[in-house]
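INFO batch 0412 | record 1 of 1 | parsing
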Amino acid sequence: MSLDLYKLNRSYSPSLSFVVGSGSSIANFVSGDLVITPLTDLVVPHGLGSEPKWCDAILKNLIADQGWLPGDEINIVTSDIQRITGGAGFGIEMNSTNIIVYFGNVIQLINKTTFATANIVTASWRLVISAQSF
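INFO prediction complete | emitting tokens
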């Protein structure tokens, strides 16, 4: 059986803790929709009490862009779009209090219909950060 913690957290609670196995505690954090602003850093307090062991970032489409439709979500940490080339991309840093996202001048993804690399229109997207501490 597979447990999708991202969907679990988004469905039930922005901050959820539970016990797994023999007393191991897992604390989860899911941000709200975060505005993407090129050439800035975004500091997101996570409240986990320790540095997360795992972090995920989802781009959530609000307005159709590059073949993606409102409601479409793209896991951008596990895809290959976080590269920094010519100022494109982003980086994520985690510490015991914050998750910090550094945005380049553009974020690129694959156009869903043409399969070409494309710059997103940042106003058409929001970022959602998930993290776990255990």
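INFO post-check: Residues 1-18, 78-82 have pLDDT under 50 and may be disordered.
INFO record closed
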